[in-house]
Amino acid sequence: MATIAMKFGGTSVADLDRIRHVAGLVKREVERGNKVAVVVSAMAGETNKLVAWTNEAARPDGAAGSHGIPDQREYDVVVASGEQVTSGLLAITLNAMGVKARSWLGWQVPIETSAVHGAARIEGVPASAMKAAVEGGEVAVVAGFQGVAPGTRISTLGRGGSDTSAVAVAAGIGADRCDIYTDVDGVYTTDPRIVPKARRLDKISFEEMLEMASLGAKVLQTRSVEIAMLNRVPTRVLSTFTPDVGGTLLCDEEDIVEKKPVTGIAYSRDEAKITLQKVPDRPGVAAAIFGPLADAGVNVDMIVQNVSEDGDKTDLTFTVPRSELSKALAALESRADAIGAGAVTHDAGVAKVSIIGIGMRTHAGVAQTMFSTLSEKGINIQVISTSEIKVSVLIAEEYVELAVRALHTAYGLDAA
Amino acid sequence: MATIAMKFGGTSVADLDRIRHVAGLVKREVERGNKVAVVVSAMAGETNKLVAWTNEAARPDGAAGSHGIPDQREYDVVVASGEQVTSGLLAITLNAMGVKARSWLGWQVPIETSAVHGAARIEGVPASAMKAAVEGGEVAVVAGFQGVAPGTRISTLGRGGSDTSAVAVAAGIGADRCDIYTDVDGVYTTDPRIVPKARRLDKISFEEMLEMASLGAKVLQTRSVEIAMLNRVPTRVLSTFTPDVGGTLLCDEEDIVEKKPVTGIAYSRDEAKITLQKVPDRPGVAAAIFGPLADAGVNVDMIVQNVSEDGDKTDLTFTVPRSELSKALAALESRADAIGAGAVTHDAGVAKVSIIGIGMRTHAGVAQTMFSTLSEKGINIQVISTSEIKVSVLIAEEYVELAVRALHTAYGLDAA
User: Fold this and answer.
1) Residue B32 CB contacts under 8 Å (≥ 6 apart), including other chains
2) What's the confidence (pLDDT) of residue B334?
3) Which of A213, A361, B255, B275 suits A25 as a labelling partner, its CA being 20 to 30 A distant?
């Protein structure tokens, strides 16, 4: 007998038949003698509909087709209704199937969050009442994606937030594990749409998964992996539609026996490169450049600084999310005098490819294999960035598939 | 400067354009210097959609088309989301128009109710935080129809409950008046669809409105009139689409100068008549009959007992809502032995017509005019029931329109 949290995303609860299927999976766990909390997303499509309504309501002039930015606290009130409906419907279905269940909304659990409406951060889940109900044998059906901000206002966690809700609920009730049911059957060595020989991983360490998620693998939201890691919640990713096949377990590094040099390969196309030429090579210039970008809310990722010919000038290159490129350029232009660069060039046709593996800590020459493999394929590396367990390179976007496939083979990840 | 509560029903907030129109009406009140709380229903159609989902989720065997009875607490969670969405959207629209506003859900106000989920009764509105916000100049947009039951579970008030929410909120914040915006421009002397000469009433007393509502006039929910009367909240009914035309004020009896004998004529087709023949005329027989009906949740309305020929037997006739007829007959049949009646007959082809007026207290012969008017038209009166300010008669349903028109003329209510 174990206490488990289960999480089902929007496609898993897209209509009443699928909700019934989900109820069946929950019932199965209860019949195995487990205590269960289930976290659900909104029915697929509902959140988009609600978001569109909020944008339309916010149009300042009332002209059809024009959009505005809605009051974020009220945006949360409207959008959170989607998960409320699903949690109620699943609780009704479970009760009709003879499984005692009740819904818990974010404010009822409570899932306490920061006041950053629309992208709130979970700060605590003091779920003692819910925990007692679960321990008493009642299934808790928790509305995902939502919480309660200071002042008892409804908050939402931002897209993908239901994963985070699930792991936080698992931690809050002291669950033995958290099962994330989704439309894929686990975490793969890389994106199977690009590499048909990609393999499902039976296990992956929290640290690796964190890098995979933040580097573009979209199976889990980054924050959910952070919370799982911090609270040491064993977390499984598995398929709603084939729950008995496979799955991937996120676990502590120590629980992984065979540490390959590289566990997975991630990529991201949401990249743009900015180069400032002939920047004065003096103290304070980096602050003059990155200060305005931070103020404008631009997330700078990779940074590289080259020495230029004449010694007192330097070229500075960095990447930003493609969607933030124009905002970044505007921020730099407004401070051009203070920066004193020669010219600013940019390129939105770039992509980031990363190799990830805890084995890098103990294996030598891992990065060298990456560089030589790309070189053999004639792929130019524009920027390199490394951490303890990953190496990322920026390349021209057109080479992404080629690069990922070549690296997948080079690191021995191809399925037999 | 006044503090006012405004209420808008489902057709008034049916889409984002109408919500914008409503926001314009709210803004106008704010610009007049008034402090405003607005109560909104769900967008027209939304509640029906949500209710259908709960029924489908509750089907025990999962067969398409079959329905079940959903867990009522979870039903409330699902259905209350409709008003949550509207309140958020209206708050967004108001803020976009430059009017400071925030939404308040039932549990946030809080609107405290009984635990009778699906048909909860408002027990208190300790709205001090909301009152302070309204007094500070912020528009409160309250989700109607919902409240919070003991144990912080979401509750709903049953159909039409948003009227009740509005009056309760008005009382809770000590509003100077409550304006109920609807799709008609006020309360009429009778149903204008039947009597083209029906007139809009400028004023009606709470007591009369209570009778009108409970006798079939569908402008306001009965419970909302009760709360308005108990808390002495001046309440206006007016049109969302022509807010500057007319309207009807519900007020204290003393505020009505000219007290006509009859103020309005109501009718109800939701009636069925049951007659028990040759019931033993002895103590306890009424209890033997009406006890089982009460246990079965049947609302008995008019009751009349005739003396039968042979002295020790009596005929008993009463009415029930037409929708409860089969339930009533089943309850009587199960106790037929205890009752000992000769035969049970029933008739679903009946209707109730009522005359209402506080003037009856001081005018004589008011009922006699009703009886003679119906007699002249050849309409047979089957049952009569009276109270201090109304007379109701049961007649064959086919005569309803004729009876209402004749009475409207007889009591001098026709428009010039």
Assistant:
1) none
2) 82
3) A213
A402 in B contact zone (CB under 8 Å):
no
- For an interface test with A, the pick among B43, B55, B74 (most A C-beta atoms closer than 10 Å) comes out as B74
pTM for the complete prediction? 0.86
- A16 is written with which tokens? 């009443």
B77 found inside a domain: yes
The residue among B163, B183, B203 that closes a domain is B183
The answer to whether residue A241 sits within a structural domain is: no
Q: What is the CA radius of gyration of chain A?
A: 24
- Is the pLDDT at A292 greater than 60? The verdict is yes
Q: Chain B contact for A14, CB < 8 A? A: no
Burial class, B257, CB count within 10 angstroms (exposed 0-12 / middle 13-18 / buried 19+)? exposed
Minimum Cα–Cα distance from A62: chain B residue:
B20
Res. A147 pLDDT band, cuts 50 70 90: very high
**Partner-chain residue, chosen from B59, B80, B91, that has the shortest CB–CB distance to A96:** B59
Contact call for B103 and A152, based on CB within 8 A: no
Q: Do the Cβ atoms of B393 and B374 come closer than 8 Å? A: yes
CB contact under 8 A, A16 and B92: no
Q: Considering only A267-281, A323-337, B83-97, B298-312, which range has the smallest mean pLDDT?
A: B298-312
Domain endpoint, select from B183, B217, B248 = B183
CB-CB neighbors (< 8 A) of A88 in chain B:
54, 74-78, 81
Q: Determine the Cα–Cα distance for residues B327 and B293; give it in Å rounded to an integer.
A: 8
- Does residue B359 sit within a domain? yes
Give the best residue of B22, B83, B87, B89 to mutate against chain A (max A CB count within 10 A): B89
Q: Round to whole Å and give the CA distance between A388 and B217.
A: 75
Side-chain-side CA neighbours of B179 within 13 Å: the count stands at 23
Q: Indicate the SS3 state at residue B193.
A: coil
Q: How many domains does chain B have?
A: 2
Q: Quick one: B14 and B145 in the same domain? A: yes
Tell if the CB–CB gap between A88 and B105 is shorter than 8 Å. no
Tell me the pLDDT tens digit for each residue of A194-247.
999 999 999 999 999 999 988 877 788 889 999 999 999 999 999 998 988 889
Among A49, A268, A99, smallest CA distance to B43 is for A49
pLDDT at A404 over 60: yes
| A326 contacts: CB under 8 Å, gap ≥ 6 | none
Does the beta carbon of A152 lie under 8 angstroms from any beta carbon of chain B? yes
- What CATH number should be reported for the domain holding residue A125? 3.40.1160.10
Measured between beta carbons, the chain A residues lying within 8 angstroms of B73 are: 102
* Banded pLDDT at B132 (limits 50, 70, 90): very high
B321 contacts chain A (CB < 8 A): no
Shared domain for B17 and B151, answered yes or no, is yes
* pLDDT tens-digit readout, B157-206: 977 799 999 999 999 999 999 999 998 889 999 999 999 999 999 999 99
Set of chain A residues whose Cβ sits within 8 Å of the Cβ of B97: 60
| B339 against A186, higher pLDDT | A186
